[in-house]
Amino acid sequence: MTAFEPVIGLEVHAQLKTQTKIFCGCSTQFGAPPNTHTCPVCLGMPGSLPVLNKKVVEYSLRMALATHCTVPGQNRFARKNYFYPDLPKGYQISQFELPIAVKGYVDILVNGQARRIGLTRIHMEEDAGKLIHDPKRPISLVDLNRTGVPLIEIVSEPDMRSAEEAGAYLRILRAIIRWIDIGDGNMEEGSFRCDANVSLRPKGSSAFGTRTETKNLNSFKHVEKAIQYEIARQTEILLDGGTVVQETRLWDADKGQSFSMRSKEEAHDYRYFPDPDLVPLVIDPAWIEAVRQSLPELPDQRRARFVTDYQLPEYDAGVLTSSRELADYFETCLRSFNQPKVASNWVMGPLLGLLNAQDRAIEQSPVSADGLAALLKLLDQGTISGKIAKTVFDEMAATGKTAEAIVKEKGLVQVSDSSALEAAVDQVLAKLPGEVSRFKAGEAKLMGFFVGQVMKATKGKGNPKMVNEILEKKLKG
Ligand code: ADP
Ligand code: MG
Ligand code: ZN
Predict the structure, then answer these.
(1) Running DSSP on this structure, what letter comes out for residue 349?
(2) CB under 6 Å to ligand 1: residues?
(3) Domain ranges in the chain?
(4) Ligand nearest to the CA of 12
(5) Percent share of the chain, pLDDT over 70
(6) Ligand lying nearest the CA atom of residue 11
(7) What is the pTM of this model?
């Protein structure tokens, strides 16, 4: 049987969070009554002239530099011509031959494997309006508030090889957009949208197969599902001896299937041409430099620094820098508890587990970075045991109290008094003569069992290190 390798390239549209639209002064605010954020320019009235919003260029430059793109400096806006009721001008202003940025990359980490995904280009464009289909009457309404809202389109190289890699790539892109503060990257609300191009080729082949493009993917989960679906669909066609048709498909989230929307023959010919209303845009290298200087430390720089400065594994560094806020949280915690790997384990384990379960972002964490550091200090000083620390953490999350207060209140201080622990060990061993003789006859693995019994007898408060030592002494001495 032929084994196939999936080839995936993504086109991502990200909304930029400017106050005003790309070519007019209308507000970009979401959720206003229909058609209240409009003017002759974004309504496409004849004779009105677009004026480029400088912030849009600045935000696009931020993205370009954060994704290691080249900024050619020579920009041109182009008209992409098509008819649709949500597009009053009959064309969308976009960029075609001379986009703002080309040839970048982002690094992803999937199953412990680092991969570099190339970016073909980033270009600026305006969004179209929105059709509202009246459920009660056979009519559709047009809301043009969104017309002219600025977008960047980020086109990847066909560098991804699995749905998982595509998901990782998208997450990184969104993380960067949020990190450099140019957009909110919200897929459900449509400010971060993705079309997935998928093809298959025989493993080992270097030529590309015929691709399809799946649209209407509005969550990370659905992007991955739709890609898996498409890989399975194309595999079946090819194994049956058929050929994949180049087409655009539409994902139906409820059915978990995609359906053909139009074939290549029906594809639009957009007749791109330079927009005569907008002068060519030349970006001064000094401006590019100034934008570069204004960027914060970027996710991949910070990830690399976490590995070298804190000796963290790549994986930990990747998770901890998945958002700027999480990275800040971690470093705040380190300021008062400087054991990076211990802190990393607690952030990635109990903390992220809790936030996931409660569907909260790190900014809304019920346990502050300083609070966590205080807990880890109690653990490190031996005041509480590891097991108790987890209980205290849960209690901190539930009540908002400090670790110290909870430990005091509930009498959770670790028992490190050797005479008390010796007594506990003696009691446990006295009850288990059978196991003791088996241990003495060579069943060394019973040690763990004894430790467990003593910890149980001390309600988890015994200092594990001391319990071990005392057991060793009693059993072997
Ligand atoms: P179009 O507008 O026709 O979709 P674009 O150049 O905007 O063309 O986007 C093409 C996208 O499809 C890119 O992300 C690219 O990586 C991807 N792509 C191109 N060829 C293939 C292929 N054979 N298999 C999978 N993806 C592909
Ligand atoms: Mg496309
Ligand atoms: Zn307007």
Answers:
(1) I
(2) 7-11, 155-158, 197-199, 208-209, 211, 213
(3) 9-198+268-290, 297-410, 418-476
(4) 1
(5) 99
(6) 1
(7) 0.85
